[in-house]
Design the sequence.
């Protein structure tokens, strides 16, 4: 499962897959160590959300999302449900958000440890299957459900 | 014996600190020929020999995609330097080794690999196998610390040793790139070897650069090699192979650190780039810089000004009259006006040095980058623009820390539109005379307009001159470091000296020229060449409603904006600030013209000091001339709009 580097949540790690920047920038980025196969970590977003500091090797670089979105990575470990591709079996590892939201999820049986699969993720809505039942939620909610992909 | 050494390294590895330590104050700051990039040279006498150092711009690759990279590469490949010193940070040797490999591929010149900040590596428990590295790379390795001064002597010894014993330079370093790429490289090398014009270059390096689709080399080789098929992703393959070698070297010769060397930096960053605290802290630091640069320096500047006033008073009693006037008004006035900048500039550079050396500058840019995003410049320029409210001269000099030369030029040419403090007396006089209770609002609207014009100027210059050039913000966040006092003093001195030498002469000459224009032919300002010039251009400002005294004052204002008021006073024969001055002003122009005059003063020709700084910073008179024309056209059009719109609103 491959996402854009700018979508990688703060604190998450990923393996670099491809660098699709224009030639001039690509050489610089490669020279800084953003090389396919290497690990990258999103350290911190700026107070105004963009840019983000990434760690590559023992080196920290700030990239705007306009550049980071041209670098494709494969996340290691849990990611928000909203970034998950469709029809991939995942397991919920954490639920973020307020108490009411958590209670709502739990009341319909969505909880840590459950297996979850996205059926459709379009137009800001996301339908998913949990234990054979289908639910539809918004992208905001889906970003608070953290999952790991099952192989 | 004289040895020329080029110092090359990644940005933020303490390259400049090491350079300062090596050369002390024996430095010369200038420009690389034909470009705006600062060139630093320095000397060291060591054991009876002279070692000349040139500090190349920091770079990660020899790709020559940016001006900095191009300069560094040209110096390495074509430069006259005898020895190249590559400086690497002991805690991020990955990038240092990556650069070293590229340099070894590019040149057959002797190379010395310096691992700097060795004190930090020791503290982190990192053990580096020096001999092992030397053998694996066939390159001498020296450990240094710019903080403790360790290894400086060893480096100088090594430079002399390498220079005098060419036998130890006979290194053979060839990195193999895998069968497929090697085959293509061979094919290309063979083709190039048939062409005589490339005989002085390292052919293998040309071939590698061709595969990396280096714009310059691709251009010069494209007709020689047109039928060689370059596989996709060959760039990535080449970079990966280099990094593969780097990680092998690191694995074999460098031990892991015993603790996280980033823990302190991360803790500081947690506060300084905090979601909510980051921006207030940045603003507080900005406020502090502004305060210190202009307020702490103010009494010192006043003292210098008072001294020169006194001195010019002494000389004004001389005879003949013209000589007294030349000495007191022209030369002493000129020298005085240069020296009043000294406290500002030295204090500013002391603080800029502190922010840069500690590593906060990158954070400042990071924190406000989003604001500047739409202007296609980065957060770094923000600080320069804010300083511009105080004085354009230090603001323009502060652009020196920008890495991107395109951004630096746009910033540098737009700073004069930021309303500096010298323009305030002009606004106060005019607004006080014409707008009574609304004077504050009038001044505020001029300041507001100045920001709007600056923003438009940034956008327009970006569009006009730098069409299609991407403006990425790729900035390294270095570890926080404590700068040494010596380093800060050298930083302050070498940058301040640059202003005195380069801008000082121009300011002095132009003050004397202005004096000449105001004194001759009769010794009376009203009949001087300047007044004639004022009368000559007055028809252009007829629509604006400016009389010849206003236009003449504007000419004098080119020497310094606050002079507009005093020269107007002289021309009408009244004391500055007296009611008769206000009365004359009121009778000569109406309130719409008055506001137009404020707007004109806000935007028109930056003062001589600023023009001189633009010239010394860009190394070319072209940009000063451009600035004169550009600001005057903008000022003329803006004030014209004010008059036209103002009149339309009233009728």
Sequence:
């Amino acid at each position: 499962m491959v996402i854009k580097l700018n979508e990688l949540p703060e604190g998450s790690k990923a393996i670099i897959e491809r660098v699709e920047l224009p030639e001039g920038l690509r050489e610089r980025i490669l020279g800084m160590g953003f090389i396919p196969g290497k690990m990258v970590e999103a350290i911190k977003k700026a107070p105004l959300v963009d840019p983000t500091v990434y760690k590559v090797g023992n080196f920290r670089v700030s990239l705007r999302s306009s550049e980071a979105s041209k670098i494709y990575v494969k996340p290691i470990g849990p990611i928000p449900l909203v970034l998950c591709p469709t029809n991939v079996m995942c397991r919920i590892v954490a639920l973020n958000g307020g108490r009411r939201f958590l209670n709502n999820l739990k009341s319909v049986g969505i909880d840590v440890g459950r297996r979850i699969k996205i059926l459709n993720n379009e137009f800001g809505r996301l339908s998913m299957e949990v234990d054979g039942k289908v639910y539809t939620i918004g992208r905001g909610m889906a970003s608070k459900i953290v999952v790991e992909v099952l192989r | 014996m004289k040895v020329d050494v080029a110092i090359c390294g990644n940005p933020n590895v303490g390259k400049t600190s090491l350079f300062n330590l090596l050369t002390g104050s024996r430095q010369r700051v200038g420009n690389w020929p034909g470009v705006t990039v600062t060139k630093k040279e320095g000397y060291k006498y060591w054991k009876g020999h002279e070692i000349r150092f040139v500090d190349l711009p920091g770079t990660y690759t020899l790709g020559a995609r940016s001006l900095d990279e191009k300069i560094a590469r040209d110096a390495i490949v074509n430069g006259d330097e005898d020895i190249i010193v590559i400086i690497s940070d002991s805690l991020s040797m990955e990038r240092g080794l990556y650069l070293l490999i590229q340099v070894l591929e590019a040149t057959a010149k002797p190379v010395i690999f310096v691992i700097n900040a060795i004190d930090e590596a020791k503290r982190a428990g990192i053990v580096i196998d020096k001999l092992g590295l030397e053998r694996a790379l066939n390159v001498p390795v020296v450990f240094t610390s710019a903080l403790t001064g360790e290894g400086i002597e060893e480096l100088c010894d090594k430079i002399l040793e390498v220079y005098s014993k060419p036998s130890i330079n006979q290194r053979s370093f060839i990195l193999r790139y895998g069968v497929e790429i090697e085959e293509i490289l061979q094919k290309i090398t063979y083709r190039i070897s048939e062409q005589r014009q490339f005989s002085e270059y390292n052919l293998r390096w040309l071939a590698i650069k061709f595969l990396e689709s280096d714009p310059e080399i691709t251009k010069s080789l494209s007709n020689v090699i047109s039928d060689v098929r370059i596989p996709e992703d060959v760039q990535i393959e080449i970079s990966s192979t280099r990094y593969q070698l780097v990680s092998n070297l690191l694995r074999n010769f460098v031990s892991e650190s015993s603790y996280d060397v980033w823990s302190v930096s991360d803790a500081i960053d947690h506060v300084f780039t905090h979601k909510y605290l980051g921006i207030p802290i940045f603003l507080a630091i900005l406020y502090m810089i502004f305060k210190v640069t202009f307020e702490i320096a103010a009494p010192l500047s006043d003292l210098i000004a008072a001294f020169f006033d006194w001195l010019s008073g002494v000389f004004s009693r001389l005879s003949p009259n013209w000589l007294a006037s030349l000495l007191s008004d022209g030369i002493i006035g000129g020298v005085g006006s240069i020296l009043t900048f000294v406290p500002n500039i030295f204090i500013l550079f002391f603080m800029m040095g502190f922010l840069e050396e500690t590593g906060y500058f990158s954070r400042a840019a990071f924190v406000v980058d989003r604001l500047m995003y739409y202007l296609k410049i980065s957060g770094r320029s923000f600080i320069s623009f804010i300083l511009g409210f105080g004085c354009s001269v230090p603001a323009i000099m502060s652009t020196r820390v920008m890495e991107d030369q395109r951004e630096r030029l746009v910033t540098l040419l737009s700073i004069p539109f930021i309303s500096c403090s010298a323009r305030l007396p002009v606004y106060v006089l005019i607004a006080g005379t014409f707008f009574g209770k609304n004077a504050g609002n009038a001044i505020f609207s001029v300041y507001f307009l100045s920001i709007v014009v600056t923003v438009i100027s940034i956008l327009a210059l970006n569009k006009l001159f730098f069409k299609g050039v991407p403006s990425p913000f790729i900035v390294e966040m270095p570890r926080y470091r404590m700068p040494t006092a010596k380093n800060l003093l050298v930083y302050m001195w070498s940058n301040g000296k640059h202003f005195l030498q380069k801008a000082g002469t121009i300011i002095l000459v132009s003050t004397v020229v202005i004096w000449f224009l105001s004194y001759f032919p009769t010794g009376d300002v009203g009949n001087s060449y300047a007044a004639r010039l004022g009368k000559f251009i007055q028809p252009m400002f007829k629509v604006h409603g400016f009389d010849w005294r206003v236009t003449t004052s504007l000419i004098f204002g080119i020497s310094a904006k606050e002079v507009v008021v005093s020269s107007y006073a002289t021309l009408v024969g009244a004391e500055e600030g007296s009611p008769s001055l206000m009365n004359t002003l009121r009778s000569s122009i109406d309130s719409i013209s008055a506001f137009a005059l404020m707007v004109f003063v806000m935007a028109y020709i930056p003062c001589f000091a600023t023009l001189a700084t633009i010239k010394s910073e860009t190394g070319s008179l072209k940009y000063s001339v451009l600035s004169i024309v550009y600001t005057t056209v903008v000022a003329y059009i803006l004030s014209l709009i004010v008059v036209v719109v103002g009149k339309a609103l009233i009728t």
